[in-house]
Amino acid sequence: MANSSQILEDLLNSPPTSALPITYQWLLPNRKGLENFLSTFSSSSPSQDSAATCTDNGPALNTSTQDPNDMPNSITASEAMSKPRSASANRTSQTPTDSGPALNTSSQNPNDMPSSLSGVDAMTKPRSSPSPTTNPTHEISIFTAATESFTHANTNTTISQSLSSFHPLITHAKNHNISTRAYISVALGCPYEGPSVSPTRVASIATSLLDMGVSQISVADTTGMGTPPKTATLLKTLQKAGVRPENLALHFHDTYGTALVNTMVGLEHGVRVFDASVAGLGGCPFSPGASGNVATEDLAHLCEGLGVGTGVDVEEIARIGEWISGEVGRGNESRAGRATLAKARL
């Protein structure tokens, strides 16, 4: 497998053509990872269009008269296709030591937020025959956790230390017109401290990250311990702390089969961006037994059944899920994907 810098260089030199905007999110574990990313990015790419990336001067204003709890017309599904952790998460448990960036792709920029309409309205506005584009956006991603035990196991730091280390990364990225997405792991249950994680602590971490200038926060149920009541309590706590739905993404693992019902709770609370992984790939080396992210195919199938558009071709993504599952030597975890392919072969 190519290393992260080689993947980045290839994407910069030969970007794929797409009818819709593509955002590549590169997971950076530390300052060295950012420096490696910027070195490759600067040498292989023309200046990124700052209008498409880091133009945020603060949280976006949502002046929509629509009830945020109404079922939306569409969502953004952010594909959590990580490297290097994908290999370890799907095969063996090992501590990530790669100091380069890891890749997370999305078919739509999750940070696009209009000033006079809700994100849902923006995503459902009619498009007039979009022209193919080969100019993707690149963002960086950083991660911390909602418990001290997990933070120490995952990054060998405290929560406070991890937050302190982020400020220069975010500032440095902004100086290069690159926006930053932050992850808060184990927000709904920790393998070391149990299922009762303080939602107030999650909210405090989230507000600190927003104050530093991150463009979006992905709140992660890394262990899959989240339940609908816990998810609702967390989202209400975040809202009370001033973290608005348009600043959030939700990242559910499906260990206990609750990812989709938790997604429903997120939709009801106004969240419109959800991380997913084709065929349910993924996991966590520090959470024994944790399954991968909710499958992209399952998320898209649920949303389409609710009349919520995703822009995802379920049959095509199901084929990709079957292929990649074979490549990594594991079962296809997507129920909707397996059913879709079975039906297509009748």
What does this structure look like?
The chain has 346 residues and is an alpha/beta fold. 38% of the residues lie in helices and 13% in strands. The chain is built from 12 helices and 8 strands. The protein has helices spanning 4-13, 31-44, 85-90, 119-124, 148-155, 159-175, 199-212, 228-240, 259-268, 296-305, 314-328, 335-344, and strands at 23-27, 76-79, 102-106, 137-145, 180-185, 216-221, 248-252, 273-276. The chain has an 8-stranded mixed beta barrel, surrounded by 5 helices. Helix 9 links the parallel strand 7 and strand 8 (273-276). Helix 8 packs parallel to helix 9 (259-268). It is globular, with a radius of gyration of 19 Å. Mean pLDDT is 78; it is low at 49-69 and 82-130.
Features:
346 residues; alpha/beta; eight-stranded mixed β-barrel; 12 helices
Quick structural summary:
The chain has 346 residues and is of the alpha/beta class. The protein has helices at residues 4-13, 31-44, 85-90, 119-124, 148-155, 159-175, 199-212, 228-240, 259-268, 296-305, 314-328, 335-344; strands at 23-27, 76-79, 102-106, 137-145, 180-185, 216-221, 248-252, 273-276.
Question: What letter string, H or E per element, gives the SSE order?
Answer: HEHEHEHEHHEHEHEHEHHH
The total count of strands amounts to: 8
On the 0-100 scale, what is the average pLDDT?
78
Q: Tell me the structural class.
A: alpha/beta
Number of helices: 12
Beta strand %: 5-15%
| Largest β sheet strand count, sense and barrel closure | 8 strands, mixed, barrel
The order of strands across the largest sheet is 1-3-2-8-7-6-5-4
Shape: globular
N/C terminus separation? 35 Å
Rg on CA atoms, Å: 19 Å
Helix fraction, binned, reads 25-40%
Unreliable stretches:
49-69, 82-130
Counting copies of identical and different chains, the oligomeric state is: single chain
